[in-house]
Amino acid sequence: MKLSPPVEDGPVTNCNCSICHINGALMVYPLESNITWESGFDEMKTYTFGQKRIAHTFCPTCGTSISGKSTDPNFFAHNRAINVSQPHELLCHFSYFTGPPGSIHVA
């Protein structure tokens, strides 16, 4: 996957939804148009739960959380949440935001 601008330029959010919390996901929220999937995205599996507002993609082999995309056109329709907690060598490049529920701000 490639992001433009680079993923390190954006703040990281410690998402507080149940699946992200369980998976330890740390998310950046680039515009979908700024993401280029180089390989493997077609093999990813999708999981939804609750109100089914977010389609979470994960690796079918190891279960690693990859990304999340809104299924609601009125809820961050142009962004994709990318889990940057994998690979770990990226983590030292970010500034972090941890806030109360409902406080995620996306560009």
UniProtKB/TrEMBL annotation:
<keyword id="KW-0479">Metal-binding</keyword>
<comment type="similarity">
    <text>Belongs to the Gfa family.</text>
</comment>
<dbReference type="InterPro" id="IPR006913">
    <property type="entry name" value="CENP-V/GFA"/>
</dbReference>
<dbReference type="GO" id="GO:0016846">
    <property type="term" value="F:carbon-sulfur lyase activity"/>
</dbReference>
<protein>
    <recommendedName>
        <fullName>CENP-V/GFA domain-containing protein</fullName>
    </recommendedName>
</protein>
<dbReference type="InterPro" id="IPR011057">
    <property type="entry name" value="Mss4-like_sf"/>
</dbReference>
<dbReference type="GO" id="GO:0046872">
    <property type="term" value="F:metal ion binding"/>
</dbReference>
<keyword id="KW-0862">Zinc</keyword>
<dbReference type="Pfam" id="PF04828">
    <property type="entry name" value="GFA"/>
</dbReference>
<feature type="domain" description="CENP-V/GFA">
    <location>
        <begin position="1"/>
        <end position="107"/>
    </location>
</feature>
<dbReference type="InterPro" id="IPR052355">
    <property type="entry name" value="CENP-V-like"/>
</dbReference>
